[in-house]
């Protein structure tokens, strides 16, 4: 893969120019963005791959749900439906996508969960509901500039920060690094638990945020209890198992399990993997399966896996959490 990226290096300037020009046309108002009276908070990244958007959306829901009527709006990647869909009792990963279904499964009493590839239409549909939301969280829409979000949260991982990366196809950036200038908040995600102030200072210098931008650091907090459809199990009680992942970056999870000195074999699929009948038949032979919450949403309805399938919940811990919350709420009250 790396060799192919080097071969494609001559294409990089053209991709850079195309994405830079597109952003410039939006910045100048030549290409039109639409703003809304309902507050819209966009969560996204500059790079392809997992930066922790799903746990950040869940964190924002937790922060806001007791004071505001909240809705999430996602594309609904790899769902088998089209157009605007609102999560309801008949929702599944196939109808609204795995990550939105995770939001719905966890917060259905607190938030509206919607999907629409056309974000403008999705927002308008939500605003026209009888129980219209007071704030809309846009999932993975940082490059969707036809919508002018009132507030942008940009995520970048500590291990692969955008300021060390290059645009596609040589690097992983969807647009030039200058796209970070649109962010109101930049969150450096998946930080080591032992990250010290010196390390933070080095990152802050490279980000070089302006006076109107806020930078926070976050790390993944893994639960100590595994969950299934009907049972629970302590992580410390695991002996040997099969780890199944279909996410962009499984390394933080495998690192966590290895620190617990657990024995497991790992079936590592591509992000948003659609499990085939052959995959399910293979998994049915396993005695115990541990997976991510996102993958659990796609696997939990298979009867042959019901008694052996568990997932490990995660959350994010943000440093300076009170300041983070106050920054979000200052936008909403303004």
UniProtKB/TrEMBL annotation:
<dbReference type="GO" id="GO:0005886">
    <property type="term" value="C:plasma membrane"/>
</dbReference>
<feature type="binding site">
    <location>
        <begin position="47"/>
        <end position="54"/>
    </location>
    <ligand>
        <name>ATP</name>
    </ligand>
</feature>
<protein>
    <recommendedName>
        <fullName>Tetraacyldisaccharide 4'-kinase</fullName>
        <ecNumber>2.7.1.130</ecNumber>
    </recommendedName>
</protein>
<dbReference type="GO" id="GO:0005524">
    <property type="term" value="F:ATP binding"/>
</dbReference>
<dbReference type="GO" id="GO:0009029">
    <property type="term" value="F:lipid-A 4'-kinase activity"/>
</dbReference>
<keyword id="KW-0443">Lipid metabolism</keyword>
<keyword id="KW-0808">Transferase</keyword>
<keyword id="KW-0444">Lipid biosynthesis</keyword>
<keyword id="KW-0418">Kinase</keyword>
<comment type="pathway">
    <text>Glycolipid biosynthesis; lipid IV(A) biosynthesis; lipid IV(A) from (3R)-3-hydroxytetradecanoyl-[acyl-carrier-protein] and UDP-N-acetyl-alpha-D-glucosamine: step 6/6.</text>
</comment>
<keyword id="KW-0441">Lipid A biosynthesis</keyword>
<keyword id="KW-0547">Nucleotide-binding</keyword>
<keyword id="KW-0067">ATP-binding</keyword>
<comment type="similarity">
    <text>Belongs to the LpxK family.</text>
</comment>
<dbReference type="GO" id="GO:0009245">
    <property type="term" value="P:lipid A biosynthetic process"/>
</dbReference>
<dbReference type="InterPro" id="IPR003758">
    <property type="entry name" value="LpxK"/>
</dbReference>
<comment type="function">
    <text>Transfers the gamma-phosphate of ATP to the 4'-position of a tetraacyldisaccharide 1-phosphate intermediate (termed DS-1-P) to form tetraacyldisaccharide 1,4'-bis-phosphate (lipid IVA).</text>
</comment>
<dbReference type="Pfam" id="PF02606">
    <property type="entry name" value="LpxK"/>
</dbReference>
<dbReference type="InterPro" id="IPR027417">
    <property type="entry name" value="P-loop_NTPase"/>
</dbReference>
